[in-house]
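Hi there,

I know you've been waiting on this one. I reran it after we fixed the sequence typo, so this is the corrected version. Both the input and the resulting structure follow.
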Amino acid sequence: MKQIFSFFICLLLVQFGMTQTVVKDSAQKAKEDSIKMKKLEAILTYPLINAGTFSGVVPVSNPDEIPDPSLNYKLLFELVDNNKATEEKDINHGLTEICRIINLHVASGIPVKNITPIIVVHAAALRSFYINAIYQNKYKVDNPNIAIVDELIKKTGARFIACGQAMNFFDVPREEMIPQVKVSLTAQTVLSHYQLIGYKLYEIRDDK
């Protein structure tokens, strides 16, 4: 019995030591990531739109592959995710990613006039496009997405199109959404239509 008890004590000690090592390693990695992020933040540029740190571009000297700036870059974005419950004060992370992709095109030498973004909004992402009064009532903060939407429209002529099916399912009435977002019967036909006329689809979701 004593031998069995000793065995379990040893096993617990080993597991405790491993747990301490994992916690220590995680803390060290978090510290290293934080240092790396601060270094990146110091050199990031925002060629067109600043939608937060993660919309920035790291400069690259003398790239070998350069896109043709004379082409029309027709960009179709499918935005489906909303921020976590504790992040309502932040710009929708998917919207930030859309701004990053557009910034990357501009940083690559493509004129803004040759960039045409279409943003298809459905699923939980609809909640990022409430008018400010509704957003304040639900989340107790101003809607941080409205200014970015306005900037994208002003600078690129971006179109925002919401899915009428998702609006019904997620109970987001048209009158509660900002008027900059237009409404379609379904996101599916918007996605198929624009791809058929040459738009490049970017699926903007957390699991991508």
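Quick highlight: Residues 53-204 form a domain with the Hypothetical Protein Ychn; Chain: A, fold (CATH 3.40.1260.10).

Best,
R. S.
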